[in-house]
Amino acid sequence: MHYPVMTERQLAARWKISLKTLRRWRSDNEGPTWHKLFQYVRYHEADILGFERQSAQHWSAILGDGERVPKVVTRPQEQPETEEDAGAFYVTAQDVIEATGLPKHWFTTPEYRARKQVPHLALVGSIRFSLQALWEWEQNHSTVGRPPEPKAPRQPDTEPEPAPPSRVPLWHELARELDREQFDSTS
C-alpha cells in the first residue's frame, strides 16, 4: 500500500541522516518543503522527489559530466498482486495507520474522527478509509511549515546619536578646576 507522505522518521531512514539533522534543516529553512498536520511534521513525496532531483542536478553541476553523480533512489510503486487487490479502494484503520504513520486514535475513535473531520465510510459497523480521500484531507488540513522570516535589522534613526565624550575627566581633575574657579572668582 502506497501513501504519498512521509514522516520525519521515514525520511531520515530514507536518507540515512538523523532526526536532529532534519529538525535543524527545518529551523534553518533548508532542505525540502515540509508540512504540518496539526502537530505532526510531514513530507510530501512530490516535495522529496523534487528536492532529490534538484540536489542531483546541483551535484552534476559541481562535479561535471565525467565524474560520478549520486543516484536518486526512489521507492518503487507497489503494484497490487491480484485483480481483487486492485479493486480494493477502501482499507481498514490498521492499514491506514501503517500507511500514513498517523496516531491510531485518529482513525479508531469516533469522537476524534468527527473532531478532525477524517473522511471515512461506515459499513454496517465497520469503518473503512480511502487513501485518496485521506490524501486530499491531509493536503487541505496541513500547512506548509516554514520558520518565520528573520526580523529585518533595525533601521538607523534619522537623527544621529550624540557622540560620546572623548575622555571623561577624573575626580581630582574636576576638583582642581573647581578650586581654580573659586580662586578666580575671589580675586
Order of helices and strands: EHHEEHHEHHHEEHEH
Strand order of the largest sheet: 1-3-2-7
Largest sheet: 4 strands, antiparallel
Structural category: alpha+beta
Radius of gyration: 32 Å
- The general outline is elongated
Give a structural overview:
The chain has 187 residues and is an alpha+beta fold. Strands 1-3-2-7 form a four-stranded antiparallel beta sheet. The chain has nine helices and seven strands; from the N terminus they run E-H-H-E-E-H-H-E-H-H-H-E-E-H-E-H. The protein is elongated and about 115 Å long.
Question: What's a concise summary of this model?
Answer:
By secondary structure, the protein is of the alpha+beta class.
Topology:
Elements: E1 5-7, H1 8-15, H2 19-27, E2 34-37, E3 40-44, H3 45-63, H4 83-86, E4 90-91, H5 93-100, H6 105-108, H7 110-116, E5 121-123, E6 126-130, H8 131-141, E7 142-145, H9 171-186
Antiparallel strand pairs: 1-3, 2-3, 2-7, 4-6, 5-6
Provide keyphrases for this structure.
single chain; 187 residues; alpha+beta; four-stranded antiparallel β-sheet; 7 strands; 46% helix
